[in-house]
Amino acid sequence: MTDIIKNKVKDFIIENFLFGDASQAPADNASLIENAIIDSTGVLELVAFIEERFAIAMSDTDIVPANLDSLDRIAAFVAARSSTGQVEAAE
Amino acid sequence: MCGFGGYLGSVAEGEQLLHSMTQAILHRGPDEQGVFVAPGVGLAHARLSIVGLGDGQQPMQDESGTLTIAFNGEIFNYVELREELRARGRRFRTSSDTEVILHLYDEMGVDCVTRLNGDFAFAIHDARQNRLFLARDRMGVRPLFHTLKAGVFYFASEVKALLQAPGVVAEIDPVALEQIFTLWAPIAPRTPFRDISELQPASLMIVDENGISTRSYWQMDFPEAGETSRHRSVGPAAEELRALLTDATRIRMRADVPVGSYLSGGLDSSIVSALAAGMTPQTLRTFSVTFDSVEHDESAFQAEMARALGTRHSTVHCAQGDIAASFPDVIRFTERPILRTAPAPLFKLSGLVRENGLKVVLTGEGADEVFAGYDIFKEARVRRFCARQPQSRIRPHLFRKLYPYLPGLRQQSAEYLAAFFGVGGDTLGDPLFSHGPRLRGTAAAKLFFSADLRTSLAGYDAAEEMASLLPENFAHWHPLHQAQYLESRFLLPGYILSSQGDRMAMAHGVEGRFPFLDHRLVEFSAGLPPDMKLRGLTEKHILREATKDILPPLISQRPKQPYRAPDSRSFTGAGALDYVREAMREETVAAGGLFNPKAVAKLHAKCGTGEANGFRDNAAFVGILSTQLWLETFTTTGANIASAA
User: Fold this and answer.
1) Closest chain A C-alpha to B604 CA, distance in angstroms
2) Which residue, of A79, B129, B363, B618, has the greatest Cβ tally within 10 A?
């Protein structure tokens, strides 16, 4: 399931933060901040996407780099919060 | 204050070329034009008459006819220097500061620059030694560009004059573009024009039969961290500062025409205006720009200050659409791509000054570099504070206090704040530590570089080059002084004094004067203990102390409001201009060869929806648009980057 999540988030990042340039896509474990892919407004766009796409609610305490600063971390976080049904249902 | 150009070498139809050069920079000197032609050398001058109205024509020769000068700028201590020279038996034929330079050079040779307190760029042809001597002021207020083509050395105040010379063409230098998209400005002597250089600030150059040699005659220097300062307490230091600043302002009021002042509503221009108002028998003229948006507009503070000083105040409004309307002209004058629109309102402001019949204004520029006013200095202090306890969840909350005007930051968790500002990631010993977040944030805009441009730049890193140019003792300076140096050495001359300063003012034949950049003040401030400048998170502490009796509390206690202008949203939405659509069109971008056309199209679309509110997207949009305009303005064939780097 994490691969599905990861690919969906990756597509969102490429389209939204990299303006469609897939050649600049980050490695799964690369920091989105250190690689200047996401800035302070970008984080909130990412949170909005995750909530809407995967039908999960994120509290303020969830919005930390430990959960969101790489594709691996995002996938793990979303997977932990979602049942398979929730993710599929949101597709 | 003027513009000049010329050549050393054999040029067919040299006089015609000199006339073309002056025509190209006529905006800098609309009052008079003159040329000097001799075998193998030519000087051209376009004059803005300010000092010695009736007898200061240029190019000017000394009595012997062997020294000929073309000079742009002002020597503010020319009165004292002239008295000294007279006392030594020198005779003057004019009342100008130009002649003072000639006499001083005659006595001291190239070391004459060390005696000059002023904003200057000049060229002296010395027929006795058969050489050309060029020099530029310490901080880089006045510009001077040069190039070598077919064995001829050409020089001028602006590149557009050099482009009149045979065989000199405009091509983009990809390395300069990388520097702009990292540091906001090229690193001098490099310019965006391939094979065209600028003389660095505080440098002099000799061109003769042995070739071209350049050397620095001054540099910003700071004491070693921990070294005991002679300034033990704020009171006496503030008094000394006040005396210096008063004198720096006084000698910058010297002119045979009226001198006005910009008034932004902030601390620095208010101080300068207050000092100037007390020195002129006439009512001081002050000038401001106002904005539609509350986040950029400071008109209430401007009005308060003008009322308090009793100045005759004029404003020009920068309405929605004005930035876009003037932007092609702005780039024609900056002659370089820029990442922010802030020069555009200043272009309007200098137009207002000129419409009101003035051609000289004082400004508060430079105080933020000299007395640690910018947010980046506070940011670096907070980042160091956080880095000492990287696990702390409390300390990063201080970042919110720094940027109250950035809502995106205020909503972040402590963990994200720490991550955005590189806490834990940036090395405290990195010489560029203070500027890490800005450099990273800016460089993110390189996302839009084309594959060809990326290939041509492979292996090059602008920040690495910046680090390689730091003085030997840099590592021993206090962190605040390191940050001040970086700001003053790179951004100040490369962007603030050029794109926002000289080029915007001179576009309308207006000379800006900068009391805070008097080198005596710069040297004085460098010797102050860091805490006198940045006390806790209060910027310019000693400057506030030194001037609190001449400002209303509303102004003297006002926190720093960064000068900003609306960015990408100036160019999109209803009423968007055709030239913007054309410049950002996929085909046009592809023809330019510098950016990824599809990504640029998406960025343009995103900006059009008003969703591009992050720093990177705004910087990228303005940077790409200005680069496209640069190509269109100065080249005919788009970019040629095949042999870049």
Assistant:
1) 10
2) B363
The tokens describing B19, both together, are 């006339």
* DSSP structure class, residue B455: H
| Residue ranges making up the domain that contains B300 | 234-370+503-556
Domain CATH number, residue A34: 1.10.1200.10
**What's the CATH number where B114 sits?**
3.60.20.10
Q: How many CB atoms lie within 10 A of CB B21?
A: 33
Q: What is the DSSP letter of B341?
A: S
Q: Give, rounded to a whole angstrom, the gap between the first and last alpha carbons of chain B.
A: 36
Element (H, E) at B287: strand B285-291
User: Diameter of chain A by CA atoms?
Assistant: 34
In a domain, B205, yes or no: no
Domain count, chain B: 3
State whether B413 and A60 contact (CB < 8 Å): yes
DSSP, residue by residue, B89-134: T---SSSSHHHHHHHHHHHHGGGGGGG--EEEEEEEEETTTTEEEE
Same domain, yes or no: B8 and B116: yes
Contact predicate B105/B98, CB 8 Å: no
Query: Which residues on B lie below 8 Å from A30 (Cβ)?
Result: none
Q: Quick one: CA torsion of B595, B502, B342, B461, rounded to 10 degrees?
A: 40
B269 and B395 co-located in one domain:
no
Q: Which of A17, A32, A34, A40 is the mutation pick for testing B, counting most B CBs within 10 A?
A: A40
Number of domains in chain A: 1
Do B266 and B245 fall within a single domain? yes
Strand order in the sheet with B260-262: B312-318, B285-291, B260-262, B360-362, B511-513
Yes or no: say if B503 and B350 are a contact pair by the CB < 8 Å rule.
Answer: no
User: What size, in residues, is chain A?
Assistant: 91
Whether B140 and B19 share a structural domain: yes
What residues of chain A, 47 to 76, have a C-beta less than 8 Å from chain B? Answer: 60-61, 63-66, 69
| Same domain for B79 and B36 | yes
**DSSP string covering B504-554, please?**
HHHTTT-EEE-GGG-HHHHHHHHTS-HHHHSBTTBTTHHHHHHHGGGS-HH
Pairing mode of beta strands B197-198, B152-156? unpaired
Q: Which domain holds residue A51?
A: 2-89
Give the pLDDT means over successive 10-residue stretches in chain B (645 positions): 93 96 95 95 92 85 96 97 98 95 98 98 97 98 98 98 97 97 97 98 97 97 93 96 98 95 96 96 96 88 95 94 94 98 97 97 98 95 91 88 76 87 84 94 94 96 97 97 98 98 97 98 98 94 96 84 80 80 95 96 88 82 97 75 38
